[in-house]
Each structure stands twice: as C-alpha cells, then as structure tokens.
Amino acid sequence: MRKRLILIAVTLFGTGLSVGVASAQEGEGSLPHAGADIKNIESLQRGARNFMNYCSGCHSLKYVRYNRMATDLEIPESELKANLMFSSEKPYDTVNTAMPADAEAWFGKQPPDLSLMARARSVDYIYAFLKGFYVDKARPWGTNNLVLPGTAMPAVLSSLQGLQKPVFKNEPDEHGSANMVLVGAEPMTAGAMKPEEYDQFARDVANFLDYAGEPIKAKRQSMGVFVILFLLVFFAFAYMLKKEYWKDVH
Length: 250
What we know:
With about 250 residues, the protein is α+β, with helices and mostly antiparallel strands. The protein has ten helices and six strands. The termini are close together.
C-alpha cells in the first residue's frame, strides 16, 4: 500500500512537471520574456502610473478599484487622487475609461477592458504587443503590430518608443517558391526614451496588468507555501496514525 501511494505521488508530480516544462518550451522563443514580478512593488507603481497616464484614456479596468490598488501598491491616497484618478472622484470606484461610446466608429471596435488581458493572453503577449508596432502605410492609422496583425489600435506610444520599420526575409513556401515573410521590426526614428528605458516602461505596464488580472495573486502565492507545508506535516501525522491503527492487522 505504501509503495502504491508513493508511486502515485511520483507519477502525478512527474506528469505536472513535464506539462509545465512542455508549456514553457512551447512559449519560449515565440514571444519575448517580460520578466514580470508580481511582488516588485516599485515596478507595479510605475506600471500603474504608466497605465493611468497613457492607457486609461481608452482602456478600463472594470474589476479593479482605486482604493484596492492604492492599498496593494502602497500608493498614498493624496498621490492616488492627484496623479492616478482622471475619470472618477471616489477612491472606491472602479478604473473606468473616459472614452465615449462612439469610439467604435473611430477605431472600428470599442477599445477592450484590460482587467483580464494578462490572464487571457499572458504577460509576455502584452509586453511584446507594446514593443511590436511598426510603420505600415496600408493601415488606417499608418501602423501595424507584429503580435496582432491588423490591430485597430494606433501606435499611441510611438512618441516614447520611436517609429519602427518592418523587416522582411525571403523564405521558400511549401512549393519552394520565394516568399517575403515579415520577421520583425527595427528602429527607424528615435523616441523620447532610450530603447532600454522603453523596455522597462513596457515591462512595468505588463507587470501592472498581471496584478490587475488577479490582485490577490502575490498573497495567494506566499500563502501557498504554508499550505503545502501544512499538508506535508498533516500527511506525516496521518501516516503515523495509520501505522498505529493497522499495526495489529499486519
């Protein structure tokens, strides 16, 4: 019985480990790694500032309240009201956008709420999207995106990042014919930020949206360690109790 329980535990652990490794390998190389750290309060504070100043004009966070954000990110209420609340006067309000309803006519679709974007698409996706705009004169706004081709969103951060031009590579298709394939983008004009500064800007926004998707995530992860330790201790006592009850049977 003991050997069977150990075999089951090892099998389950090995299966979970192999699935995790496979998922990591699948995502590796397809998107740049954002290096998100939900426990990095300074990064989350910068990300909140960046989001509210550059993103909240079009995008909302309807599942996040200002006062909860201020508490979790250690933002003083005075700074919250002065620098982060642009579309509401009450700290207990959710983060709503000031974008009017006719935005759909301007962009082709209503700018989405980003509360769960990190959970739906991943933090790496957001980071890559913010860095992936390039000049495309065929598009209505004159830009396109490597991660989301045909995006309706204009390159609103181009003043910070600068403009990028597409990079094409000649690759053969399945029939052996030459085919020009878009493989990336490279700087064309400089922006207000240096490349490493804009990288940090995008990482902070992605990190903040990871927080917005699950504000309790950091607490849940830290609590999970104690839960596992409790279960291990409980298992040890349960096993010793089992041996005590069954010692006469064997």
